[in-house]
Write a structure and sequence with these properties.
By secondary structure, the chain is of the alpha+beta class. The protein is built from three helices and eight strands, in the order βββββββαβαα. The strands form three sheets. It has a four-stranded antiparallel sheet with strand order 2-3-4-5, with no helix packed on it. It is globular, with a radius of gyration of 16 Å.
Length: 140
Amino acid sequence: MKERFQDQNFRLSHFQTDVWIICPSCVKKATTKVDYEGTYAKLTCLHCGCNKETSTGDLYMAAHGYFGAELWLQAPFKDEVFWAFNFEHLLYLESYISANLREHKDRSHYTLLEKLPKFYHLAKNREALLKLIEKLKNKN
């Protein structure tokens, strides 16, 4: 178990441009990427070859939202849903959840960790959440 976690002051938007999803065609892992400057989002599945592209217009949301796609890295946890946008996001949450000491220094805004539902923060959920994260890390 990790002893110390230092908040990197990431907002959720740090992880939302490259999102792992359930492919709408074959239900295996696919990816969605958004380019806000180019005003387009793209869905790509390496399993079945599904490719879609759409305009983002003036909307600013997570990549999967442009396609109404379901997240690949999600699972029920008690009466809640644990989720992550991609592997980097999952590892960041794992690092936070596994730490005994959680430090929040030099923040200039609310971080994604401060906006998480309460169950992510509770020590009594630590072991079960870490097991869930491990399952998601090994999800094919």
